[in-house]
Amino acid sequence: MSELGKKIWLVDDDPVYQSLTIHLFEMEGSNSQLEVYSNGLEAIQCLESRLKSGEELPKVILLDLFMPVMDGWGFLEEFDNQITQSLKDQNIIIYVISSTIDPDDISRAKSNKCVRDFFIKPIRREELFKVANCA
């Protein structure tokens, strides 16, 4: 873990939700480093780049499902197919945080072997910090 704290990535295209999450982390004085990506492709490309360069990877990813360019489903597929085999003994915990209330989406996300849990937006402050401190 870096001196500044654990890396947490928020992969979500909603600027209001991004701002809210950043604000919650700042209010709590969290020493976690929060990085924001607006779609799954940006996050996958950054993961691939960091794996190649040996840079520090996130400990937790907070993933939205519905985004432009590459949605959360595409991210999970690429993560499972491309990233997990390169992680070796490292562990990245993924939580899906989405506004969908569709039981099929929730079930599909929870059944993905890369996903630890599913939360419906807006995530409560207590849930966010429980998730952020899990790794």
TrEMBL record:
4-aspartylphosphate modifications at: D64
Gene3D superfamilies: 3.40.50.2300
UniProt key word NAD: no
InterPro entries the record matches: CheY-like_superfamily, Sig_transdc_resp-reg_receiver, TCS_response_regulator
Keyword Phosphoprotein part of the UniProt annotation: yes
Domain Response regulatory, residue spans: 7-135
Keywords, alphabetical: Phosphoprotein
One annotated GO biological process: phosphorelay signal transduction system
Matching PROSITE patterns: RESPONSE_REGULATORY
Protein name per the record: Response regulator
The organism of origin for this protein: Luteibaculum oceani
